Amino acid sequence: MADTTSLAEQAFTRLRRDMLAGSLAAGSKLKIEDLQDLYGFSSSPLREALSRLCQEGLVRADERRGFRVAPISAEDMADITRMRLILDLQALSDAISCGTDAWEAAIVAAFYRLEKVEGRLEGPTVLDEEWGALHRAFHMALIAACSSARQRSWSASLFDQAERYRRYSSTHRNASRRKTNEHKKLMEATLNRETHAASAMLREHILGTQRNVEAALRAAAGETSLEERKHR
C-alpha cells in the first residue's frame, strides 16, 4: 500500500497538471468529494495537495474553508510578471557570473530538445504538456547556476503560475507564435556572458507573455459581451 506522502505527491502532480492545462477551470470550486470521484484519491492526500497548490498560488482557500482554482485576471498576471522581472533577471545575472561548463552544456541540451519539438510541428506552436515541460526546462536551465536555491525555487513557482496564463492565452489566439529564435538569441547571449543583453532579452520575453495574456483577456471579454448582447 502506497504511503500518504507518495499519494499526496501523485495528487499534487495530477491536480497541478490539470490546472495548468485548464481542465480544472479558473475560479471553479474544488470539492473534496468531487475530486475523490475524479482522481480516485482519499481526502487526506487531496487536502495536502490542495494546500501545496495554495502555496504555489494556483489554488485559493475561500472563507468557508473550501478550495477554488485561482481566478485569472490581468491584475494577477501583472503581479506575476512584476515578481518575475524582480527575481528572474537577477537570477540570470547571477547564473552568468557563476555558471560552469556543465551549466552551459545543460542550457544547450535543453534548447536542443525544445527546438526539436518545435521543428516537428507543421503549423504554429501548440502549447501542450510536452512543449510546456521542455519550455520550462530551458528557462530553468538558464538560471540553474544562480547561487540562491530559494530564488531558483521562487522563479520556478512564478514560471508555473505564468504557464497557466500562457495556456489560456493560446486558446484565444489564432496562432501561437514560435519563439525558437527568441530562445536561441537568449541562449547565445547567456553563453557569451553578455549579462546586459541577456537580461534585456529575458525582460522582453517575460513582458511579451504579459502582452499576449492581456490581449487574450480582452478578446475573451469581447466575446462575452457579444454573447450577452445576442441574448438580450
Describe the structure.
The chain has 232 residues and is mainly α. The chain folds into two domains: 7-69, Winged helix-like DNA-binding domain superfamily/Winged helix DNA-binding domain (Arc Repressor Mutant, subunit A), CATH 1.10.10; 74-223, GntR ligand-binding domain-like (Four Helix Bundle (Hemerythrin (Met), subunit A)). 72% of the residues lie in helices and 3% in strands. It has nine helices and two strands; from the N terminus they run αααββαααααα. It has helices spanning 4-21, 32-39, 43-55, 74-98, 101-119, 129-142, 149-170, 180-191, 195-230; strands at residues 59-61, 67-69. Strands 1-2 form a two-stranded antiparallel sheet. A hairpin with a 5-residue loop joins strand 1 (59-61) and strand 2. Helix 4 (74-98) packs antiparallel against helix 9 (195-230) and helix 7 (149-170) runs parallel beside helix 9 (195-230). The radius of gyration is 19 Å and the shape is globular. The relative contact order is 0.12.
Describe the secondary-structure layout.
Layout: H1 4-21, H2 32-39, H3 43-55, E1 59-61, E2 67-69, H4 74-98, H5 101-119, H6 129-142, H7 149-170, H8 180-191, H9 195-230
Antiparallel strand pairs: 1-2
Helix pairs in contact: 1-3, 4-7, 4-9, 5-6, 5-8, 7-9, 8-9
Keywords: DNA-binding, Transcription, Transcription regulation
InterPro entries: GntR_C (IPR011711), TF_FadR/GntR_C (IPR008920), Tscrpt_reg_HTH_GntR (IPR000524), WH-like_DNA-bd_sf (IPR036388), WH_DNA-bd_sf (IPR036390)
Protein name: FCD domain-containing protein
